[in-house]
């Protein structure tokens, strides 16, 4: 659909792609053709846009988009205010997801042109499917396996015995080190390193003795890994990234961690070794997760939060201190230094009250 299509045709394709999980209805001129996507403010009559936050309803009236996806509530509100400028409206309970499927269909990219570039180095005993593409400067070492329709970008590295499933995209400069596995339809962005050594050292007389990291990183299907994210191999067992996980840029995943299926982690999250993150979790940017703990399925962790103990019950957890002026921070920090003393005084007063004593000190 890269050349564009009618809105009703696009809607049918979205319905198939979403396997019937996104119900929707169409309004207006559904025979109009769209060929791309754009924000409300910039969209033209040949582009699709979306409204997912009621705060931006005002931008809809001024938008020149050919079609806009929105909720039923937003459509009713806009009609009450005089309607929307778009020629067609798609009403859906989850407009962002509908828009995401539509954007994929309008810019699918297509399979890579197959072949191994002259400047690539592919070991004689590596297995490269005939439909795969290996760009100049890429290295595929001994025993590695590259699946159908994979694309290994310029300067990317696939180590000895590593495996890429079907339809994977290893962007330029990405690294999949020895023995590690990426499942089908994986995307690994530039600078990412999968299978670096875990941080394992034993103390002895003031020195640190390296512990060999002999495990792997095993990644499931439909996983996307952001630029400059690092995932350490297991010390003995494997580090596991399950199906559908999405990792943003600049994330550190320590050795022997498990990230459950369809969890999503924002940029700069740090996870220490042997942490176990459940399925369907959402971890905000710059959150820090200590090692050897577990997080329940479906948990939301706010940005900048330190998770220092196991979270056994799913919920929304946040641990950062609200923003304030430096002067207020200094005053509050001074009060915090005396918090333990204040706690002891309160307990003493409570004990006296319980015994029938006076509150006076």
List its traits.
ten-stranded parallel beta sheet; about 20% helix; flat; eleven-stranded parallel beta sheet; about 350 residues; alpha/beta; 6 helices
Overview of the structural elements:
This protein has 361 residues and is α/β, with parallel strands linked by helices. Strand 22 and strand 23 (207-210) form a beta hairpin. Helix 1 crosses helix 4 (95-106). It is flat and about 80 Å long. The N and C termini lie far apart (79 Å). The model has no long low-confidence stretch (mean pLDDT 94).
Overall form? flat
- Our measurement of the CA-to-CA distance between the termini, rounded to an integer number of angstroms, reads 79 Å
Radius of gyration: 26 Å
Give the mean pLDDT. 94
Q: What class would the helix/strand composition place it in?
A: alpha/beta
Helix content: 10-25%
- The count of strands amounts to 39
> What percent strand?
25-35%
Strand adjacency order, main sheet: 8-11-14-17-20-25-28-31-34-37-39
Tally of individual helices: 6
Low-confidence stretches: none
What is this structure's SSE topology?
Elements: E1 5-6, H1 7-17, E2 24-28, E3 33-34, E4 36-37, E5 47-50, H2 57-62, E6 67-70, H3 72-80, E7 88-92, H4 95-106, E8 115-116, E9 121-122, E10 127-128, E11 133-134, E12 139-140, E13 145-146, E14 151-152, E15 157-158, E16 163-164, E17 169-170, E18 175-176, E19 181-182, E20 187-188, E21 193-196, E22 201-204, E23 207-210, E24 217-219, E25 224-225, E26 230-232, E27 239-241, E28 246-247, E29 252-253, E30 258-259, E31 264-265, E32 270-271, E33 276-277, E34 282-283, E35 288-289, E36 294-295, E37 300-301, E38 306-307, E39 316-317, H5 326-337, H6 339-354
Parallel strand pairs: 4-5, 5-6, 6-7, 8-11, 9-12, 10-13, 11-14, 12-15, 13-16, 14-17, 15-18, 16-19, 17-20, 18-21, 19-24, 20-25, 21-26, 24-27, 25-28, 26-29, 27-30, 28-31, 29-32, 30-33, 31-34, 32-35, 33-36, 34-37, 35-38, 37-39
Antiparallel strand pairs: 1-3, 2-7, 22-23
Helix pairs in contact: 1-4
């Amino acid at each position: 659909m890269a050349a564009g299509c009618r809105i009703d045709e696009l809607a049918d394709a979205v319905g198939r792609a979403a396997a019937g999980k996104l119900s929707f209805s169409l309004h207006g001129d559904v025979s109009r053709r769209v060929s791309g996507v754009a924000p409300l403010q910039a969209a033209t009559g040949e582009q699709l846009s979306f409204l997912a936050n009621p705060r931006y309803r005002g931008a809809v009236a001024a938008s020149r988009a050919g079609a806009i996806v929105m909720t039923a509530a937003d459509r009713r509100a806009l009609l009450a205010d005089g309607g929307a400028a778009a020629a067609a409206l798609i009403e859906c309970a989850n407009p962002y997801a509908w828009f995401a499927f539509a954007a994929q269909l309008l810019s699918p990219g297509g399979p890579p042109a197959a072949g191994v570039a002259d400047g690539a180095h592919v070991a004689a005993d590596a297995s490269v499917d005939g439909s795969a593409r290996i760009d100049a400067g890429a290295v595929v070492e001994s025993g590695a396996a590259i699946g159908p329709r994979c694309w290994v970008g310029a300067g990317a590295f696939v180590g000895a015995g590593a495996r890429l499933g079907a339809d994977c995209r290893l962007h330029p400069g990405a690294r999949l080190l020895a023995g590690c596995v990426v499942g089908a339809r994986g995307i690994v962005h530039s600078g990412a390193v999968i299978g670096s050594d875990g941080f394992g050292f034993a103390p002895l007389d003031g020195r640190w003795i390296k512990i060999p990291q002999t495990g792997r990183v095993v990644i499931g299907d439909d996983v996307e890994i952001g630029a400059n994210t690092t995932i350490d191999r297991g010390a003995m067992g494997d580090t596991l990234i399950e199906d559908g996980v999405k990792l943003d840029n600049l994330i550190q995943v320590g050795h022997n961690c498990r990230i459950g299926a369809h969890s999503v982690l924002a940029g700069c999250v740090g996870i220490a070794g042997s942490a176990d993150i459940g399925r369907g979790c959402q971890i905000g940017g710059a959150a820090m997760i200590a090692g050897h703990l577990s997080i329940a399925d479906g948990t939301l962790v706010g940005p900048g939060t330190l998770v220092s103990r196991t979270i056994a019950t799913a919920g929304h957890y946040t641990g950062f201190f609200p923003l304030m002026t430096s002067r207020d921070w200094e005053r509050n920090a001074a009060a915090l230094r005396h918090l333990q003393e204040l706690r002891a005084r309160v307990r003493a007063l409570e004990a006296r009250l319980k015994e029938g004593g006076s509150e006076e000190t």
